[in-house]
Design goal:
It is built from two helices and three strands. It is α+β, with helices and mostly antiparallel strands. The chain has one domain (about 5-85).
Length: about 90
């Protein structure tokens, strides 16, 4: 049973996944990220909901700093600093 999923179905699946990301494991986040990359679906703002390194979903208890137009979030699990430009 090897069937292909269309790009629109994949996009719906990705959006549904990120609507409830708080209870997801890093393994599940990695799978959905690979699926989105395979179908060339940009995550845009959704990529800011999890750590770049350990793929753990942000809970809201992390340290957040804003300085000179850059938002920095320190991951609780791995301690890496995730930085994004604020526009």
């Amino acid at each position: 049973m090897n069937f292909k999923i269309s790009k629109t179905e994949t996009e719906k699946q990705v959006n549904e996944f990120f609507s409830n990301i708080k209870n997801k494991t890093p393994k599940e986040i990695k799978k959905i990220k690979k699926l989105a990359m395979n179908k060339k679906i940009p995550l845009k703002e959704k990529r800011k909901l999890f750590c770049k390194k350990c793929l753990t979903a942000f809970s809201g208890k992390e340290k957040i700093r804003i300085k000179k137009g850059i938002k920095s979030i320190v991951c609780e699990k791995c301690g890496i600093i995730n930085r994004w430009k604020i526009s």
